Amino acid sequence: MHKDEYVIETDKLAKTYPGGIKAVKGIDMKIQRGQIYGFLGPNGAGKTTTIKMLSTSIKPTSGTARVMGYDISKDSMKVRKVIGVVPQDLTTDEDLKGIENMELVGRFYDIPPRESRKKAEELLDLVDLTEFGNKYVSTYSGGMRKRLELIVGLIHNPKVLFLDEPTLGLDVQTRTKMWEYIRKVKEEFGMTIVLTSHYLEEVDELADIISIIDHGQIVVTGTPEELKNSLQGDIIEATFSDSMQSKKFGEYSKSVDVTYPKENVVRMKVKDSDMEVPHIMKYMSDNNLSPIRFSISKPSLDQVFLDYTGREIREEEAGDTRKAQMNMRRLRK
Ligand SMILES: Nc1ncnc2c1ncn2[C@@H]1O[C@H](COP(=O)(O)OP(=O)(O)OP(=O)(O)O)[C@@H](O)[C@H]1O
Ligand SMILES: [Mg+2]
């Protein structure tokens, strides 16, 4: 693999499942060494299918991809040696100890036992599980189990790590902790990481590059900043004590985008808030409008998602709660 080659490169990669479900409809992407590449999309968008194709566990229907220069169809064995995969579903054995799980995977990769144990200890330390390495996985908390899943995928020193929904079902605090470990893995090993998530905060926090995937297609790709800037505008939100005032405020200008999230709340998208706010202040003063709350914000990934897909990712998350709970139950079992 040449220095300037991409770690992962796909060309019209597509998967249609038996029965005709077009899960992935021809995606092109290029991932550079040392990046965290985030795949953001709602349930059923095709994230796991893409990861499964790239990690050679299923074959594409059409299109191609290269991982570290190896073709995923023709050189799948070589691909497998250089990648680590942490699937969406849990894979560690609860009836084994943490370290035994790691050694088992080490044997699978033909790593000499002594080397495997040394690496396992180093990795347990990396995610603060040293004390628990000799405990049965059945005694682990959900967060500890996810941490173990993360390092099991690293025992054979892969160059690329696939993380499918690394924090699904974890509470917010445990999720934040997991982000720290993922960052550590990237920094300590110079790892290229492909991660999928339907948590906006997660990709915003971790990813260097994000692709938003919806209905099997990539709708936009860029750094979190680029995606937010692409909306070209700031959001101004004002809350009034009555709807008379909010209505009047909404009439401020025909050239700005106005919505009413609630009767008394006005949201405006303006090109450049630094230029617009003085005019808005004057308008409010001229019309005796006094908001009880006034905020200016740069677009969030929420708005980016909404803009590119026409839907809020949170609507999908509602349906996902059940799945997250089910996963949590499995984690606790
Ligand atoms: N083995 C399969 N056979 C048939 N259809 C499948 C199979 N696996 C996934 N699908 C379908 O393919 C589409 C994409 O599924 P995929 O699991 O890739 O989505 P996802 O983005 O990972 O979703 P989630 O956020 O729920 O994990 C969905 O419509 C799903 O129902
Ligand atoms: Mg999935």
How would you characterize the overall build of this protein?
This protein has 333 residues and is of the alpha/beta class. It folds into two domains: 221 residues, P-loop containing nucleotide triphosphate hydrolases (Rossmann fold, 3-Layer(aba) Sandwich), CATH 3.40.50.300; 67 residues, Alpha-Beta Plaits (2-Layer Sandwich). Helix content is 40%, strand content 25%. A six-stranded mixed beta sheet has the order 6-7-8-3-9-10, with helices on both faces. Strands 2-1-4-5 form a four-stranded antiparallel beta sheet, covered by helices on one side. A four-stranded antiparallel beta sheet has the order 12-13-11-14, covered by helices on one side. Strand 1 and strand 2 form a beta hairpin. Helix 3 packs across helix 4 and helix 5 runs parallel beside helix 6. Magnesium ion binds next to helix 1.
